[in-house]
Fold each of these.
Amino acid sequence: MPFDMVFAANGGASLTFDLDFFLRFVFQPSPALLSGLAITIYVAVFAQLAGTILGTLSALAGMSRLRLVRAISGIYVWFFRGTPLLVQMFLVYFGTPYLLGGLDLFPRDVNIGFINLRGAILAGLVALSINEGAYMSEIVRAGILSVDLGQTEAAKSLGMTYGLTMRRIVLPQALRVIIPPLGNEFNNMLKTTSLMSIIAVEELFRVAQAANSATFKAFEAYFGVALYYLALTTIWSAVQGRIERRLGASAGRERQPGLWARMLGLSRSRDGQVGR
Amino acid sequence: MTTIANDILAAIGGVPQTASDVVVEAIDVRKSFGRLQVLKGVSLTVGRAEVVVMIGASGSGKTTFIRCINHLEKIQAGRISVNGHLIGYREANGRLIEDREPNIARQRREIGMVFQRFNLFPHLTALGNVIEAPIRVRGVPEREAIETGRALLARVGLSAKEEAYPAQLSGGQQQRVAIARALAMKPALMLFDEPTSALDPEMIGEVLEVMQELAREGMTMIVVTHEMGFAREVADRVVMMDEGVIIEEGTPEHFFTAPEQERTKAFLSKIL
Ligand SMILES: Nc1ncnc2c1ncn2[C@@H]1O[C@H](COP(=O)(O)OP(=O)(O)OP(=O)(O)O)[C@@H](O)[C@H]1O
Ligand SMILES: [Mg+2]
């Protein structure tokens, strides 16, 4: 094939790039790759959802009047931001069943209502959610603190309870500050799901690994799957940009950077953002 | 021009009923922030339909005192009752114990508060601001709350601004929405903390006019303000605060013609 020859012509060492294989891998995805894609997407979505809920609860707990409640939130954030996600994933998948006396927490098939999951996926989902909750806790906290105290006082003076004040007045306003870093968290999450491959979850990356060991076409498989991740994060960046522009417009604020500026890192860095 | 109706309270079914003739009774209220004692024994009684204007130098404790009345601040000693109910605390074996949060929230329904910086909810429209608490707190059906809210906004001269967000309103308009928002809860008492001091001069009049109208219609009010024209025309009683105590009180005439305390004279000479 002419394409191969271009590479092979490079000195003595022969580079081989099987374009055919690559194009088929990417554009005629196998059922395994499609199912991997589906797992990656839904684990990312649900882990982000659960992490956001956990993070909100943790942020509220962190501002509680009760010292014990504050301490629990503090230790949670400290531990899960201070240890590798990879270790946490092993801890959840292999560690907790052992801790519970060999209880099969994550069996091959888990049935939650009408949903049927592989146990490993559930374990990955749990670990990602708990980890994400610790990061979201800081983000939500910054969001809540960004809301003027006068808002809480006005709500209280109208007879609103704490819960009502948070739900109807403070959190909706905190959203403006929470959403940009939340979007970045989800961008990370789409990629971080690949760590589940090491507990044998057949998400995108694991499928690429399998393709590699079956064909030894490492570059084609890994580059192919990289493009899949790139497509996911690019689509998400576009969605995120839309959401933020709408949010910015309703607040009459400056325009958010466009898709390209954002992806090429031309946008100014925002505060309140937590790196990993 | 802004037209303020002369039947504002009709929008909420007339002057809210109060259980007792004494609406506010504060006895020997003491309050500290850490080491700093800000209120050093403040006693004040406000009768039904009475308008009390509080004056005093910056830092004398006026804001702190009216925030204690709806328990936005805890107090360390003394007691405050509104409509005969102890605010923020309940009595057990002769001791005062801080009440539970839902009970405090319930007591605050009866007490409207208007802030210096308006504190409107920026994510809600003018009407949204006014109907939020009646619907969520009092459980008023939405249609009824909207009807009342529209009537209130119309009477404070804002019927054209129902759908505007706070950022789209002038300061004077925002403060009138804030007053309507407080009134929508049908409070027995309205607290105003320097409601015009964040306003441009040309907008002060429209807000004072609304307050004057409320006073005329029989609302019970405590107003912290340095608008002495308002005090002269509207106040039943003026109270002078100084370093955490009330050093003088009397009719507006008394303050304008024959203030007794040197501190009062000095203060008045500065603001008049
Ligand atoms: N949250 C707080 N923490 C600590 N000190 C406070 C707090 N709020 C008020 N103070 C102090 O309490 C004192 C009284 O303040 P307050 O706001 O009641 O005065 P004021 O009479 O309303 O003054 P102004 O006319 O400036 O509004 C001041 O010395 C102020 O610094
Ligand atoms: Mg003040």
Amino acid sequence: MPHEAVDDMYREEILELYKSPSNFGELKNPSHKHTSYNSICGDEITVQIIVKGGKIDDIKFGGSGCVISMVTASLLTDKIKGANVSDVKKMKGEDVLSLLKSKLTPSRIKCALLSFEAVKEALK
Amino acid sequence: MKITNEIAKQIKKDFPIFSHNLGLVYLDNAATTQKPASVINAVKNFYEKDNANVGRGVYSLANRAMKRYDQTRTVIANFIGANSGEIVFTRNTTESINLLAYVISKIIPKGKDEIVLTEMEHHSNLVPWQELCKRNGFKLKFVKITKDFVLDMKDFNSKLSDKTAIVSIAYASNVLGTINNVKLITRLAREKGAITVIDAAQAIQHIPIDVKHLDCDFLAFSGHKMMGPNGIGVLYGKKELLEKLSPFMFGGGMIEKVTFNDASWAKTPEKFEAGTQNIAGAVGFAEAINYIKKIGIENITGWEAFLLKYALKRLNEVKGIKTYHPNSGEKVPVVSFTLDSIHPHDIAEMLNEKKIAIRAGHCCAMPLMSVIKANGGVCRASFYFYNTLEDIDALVDSLREIQEKFK
Ligand SMILES: Cc1ncc(COP(=O)(O)O)c(C=O)c1O
């Protein structure tokens, strides 16, 4: 893993997003909901979704975790809000990782994919 | 020779990892220690000059290999005040405890069905006993820790009873650094007729251990945490107890006589060592102990106490650091901490950018994390005698920078 890439992980914009993430909080009447855990570090993310007409009408996430898991959750929820559920279901891990625009060390990939896992489970 | 900061810097040069990774600040010694060139060379030399399987050949090479393997048993036995017949080779502490948990029922008197552990156990000294409980219908009891992160001896006394079959505790905690009063605990347990098991994985590399003095029944440790190779560990057991136990793995090397329908076992300790053993690992392990002896375990203890004091002082200068470490009593050089509400993984990752290696997470002690209310895990810096004051300065300076970034 090149040194610069890891450094990149904690760049200003990422840390700013960590301090004030999008879509953080709770929904009143979610139609879909799931909590995923990362047993390695104790991270926990709950995703709440309202699906209307086959689209993600609204989505919020809550819980606690490291910069990587929280920031990815913020980016992911922004990305899929308004999207077709069928398209979201087709998304792959790499699509989510590419949102971060940083290379991750192997141990952090699980952190980054935690919210994605919760979304997929919620939509099952 | 007493170790000073200058001497520690010299000692570091014995460890090739630091010349291959310039600037590396290695503070994850509780996970595994680095290896001196002498240990690496011992393993290499064994394969180059003496390699053969042991206990099977009559030729000179096999005899030499056998001799090296047996010598290691003696070196280890001398190191902990045991007899060589009381040293069973395993892969690591985890295997040692598993071995015991598999076979120990045989020596537990009827009517005893409780196992006393503590809240500070590593998963290795917890999960094997949980499984034994599932098999035998035994119950687990956990001795509490106090607010100062030491064992609550009052609670220990209340958990101990005539029903106690086994008391199994960590000599030193891999998270808190606490050294437990193993001698006292062993004595109290014995008064109740309980079998005593000591998980010495985090103690043996730091302090002198004498099993006769401790009077414990069993003691487990890993070579890799004391500069030895991976995949070689020890289960010490009192001779008369090992003799009563049945083997838990069967096959070559552990038998006396085999017919098509039955077999009898070799003597202790060989009856516990089925299959081809990690002979090169054992040879390297002996060399690691020789290295410790050359430095002097007392000198190691002394320098580490100095390092630990310095580390605690410097860490506590940083506002927002919370340490999970006792203020009183004896300790190994392991300090767990959190910084503000920054996730430990982020801290470890950012320290990695500065070539500083620490552990982050639950450190294989998930139940303890909830007791000390660190559910997101902790950061853990753990030292060995090749660490220097500069290593600690690098850690603390970087922690301050990380803290700034999150402000
Ligand atoms: C207290 C304690 N017990 C047991 C172990 C397990 O050691 P190993 O992984 O070598 O089996 C460790 C390792 O971290 C430990 O710290």
Amino acid sequence: MEFDPSQPNAGRIYDYLLGGSHNFAVDRMAAERLVQMIPTIENGARLNRWFLDIAVNRLADLGFNRYLDLASGLPTQGYIHEIRPDALVLYNDYDQATVAYAREIIGNNPRVIYHQANIAELESILAQAEQHFAGERKLAICMIGVSYFLNDQVLSQTLQRLYEWCAPGSQIAISWIALPENPNPKLQELLARYSAMGSPIYARTVEQIKQFIAPWTLLEPGFQRLSEWNEIDGTWVIDGDRQEGDEQSDMYGTFMIKG
Amino acid sequence: MTTSTDIYSVVRETLRANSLHNAGTLPPPRLHTIAMQIGQFLLDEQPTSATLMGRMLFQQGIGLKSLLAVVGAVQADYLRHGEQLRAIESYELLKVVIESFVEHQIAHVRSEHDRFRQTVGLLQRSLG
Ligand SMILES: C[S@@+](CC[C@H](N)C(=O)[O-])C[C@H]1O[C@@H](n2cnc3c(N)ncnc32)[C@H](O)[C@@H]1O
């Protein structure tokens, strides 16, 4: 997609949901339509962004100074290079408009590179990483707010290939949406709407998600809800009219290591 | 009489209850440090500058709604304990905090808008 201020853009919509200023009226209108459809979406965006902050600080406390961030969107409002100005960061997104705009935001900062590629074309991202991190492969990797937009094949290949490629001791932080095996009609409608917008959400249960993370080793505290990471009471439920006995949908955050 | 533990827990609980009004840069696990700073500020005989406090709270990512909720909760707590004088004094102090907070917020929004316009301009020129 070209940079076109007359068309809503996913990165700018997300920025608006987080309360940012990097958006046009078309983005705000599109965001408000999403909020009407899913009133909890703003909270979901915040929980995700807070988890990114928690993740980057946790990884930095462990001494990581090289970050490969997949599906970065707009690096505004306290993104990785702002949280850790001393780190080397490689951002990525497949959306041309997001990448062009993000590069202007970052400006001339040799520590930070923004690479345009689909995660499905991981080799091109890894080639950039090899260059930017000067051959050092012990990395902190972030996949926040994207795992549920990747189909089973891409998700599993990505996690497998990242594992093979990076050095032992590397860690990866991922946020997930877990959905029930048998979504209720309201949730099915919601998933159908996302598909119609061209961004299908891949519904997986926690048990199914756990299959994808091998060969990575899950770190403490394991599969934890984003609400728990963020010490928020209650959970983030996107199928608001869930029936008694329906399995609950929620967002989770995990850390994994290559042992 | 309200003790430092009371005021700290009032502020902390109010901040926690309003955490979704805060910025994406302020995960709730960090709120207890901010609650302690606010509690300390309120109980100090000679508090650090209220203007600096307003700026600090804005920079840390506290939302205006959270801040206003804290002001309301602190007043209610002092009044519940029959401490009218303290309620008035703290209100005067917190008013300055809010003014400074809002000033910094307005300046930030203006500069973000300018940065947005500038970035869009650069981008449009570079795309010809
Ligand atoms: C919800 S935003 C997450 C942004 C950021 N990681 C954060 O946590 O704030 C999702 C981003 O993923 C990007 N995206 C989705 N699928 C992708 C893919 N297959 N490859 C690269 N980027 C993708 C979208 O363009 C969008 O900017």
